[in-house]
Amino acid sequence: MAASITNVNELMGKVVVGSKAYTLGTVNGVEVDLATWQVTHLHVGLTNEATREFGFRKPILGAVTVYVPVAIVQAIGDMIALNKGREELKDVIEPRS
Length: 97
Known about the structure:
Largest sheet: 7 strands, mixed
Strand order of the largest sheet: 5-6-1-2-3-4-7
CATH architecture: Roll
Helix content: 10-25%
Strand content: 35-45%
Mean pLDDT: 89
Number of helices: 2
Order of helices and strands: EEEHEEEHE
């Protein structure tokens, strides 16, 4: 992640958008490497559309959450832009267990 953020809470609730304006979902958490204290992954609650397209079953309550590596974050502003499109995201997102 190229941006320098002092407060992780600034990421919470931001919409995550892939290339070609594909809305993946919203940030609901982060993964931190405790050895380096760097954020490694964003926890993203998928939209209903993304849940279907990635082949996940929607839970009765809430949303499916996946891990998105920060290496594919292109920019952070009002939303978080990724440098991958829908098809490429299938290869890099990890389901949260």
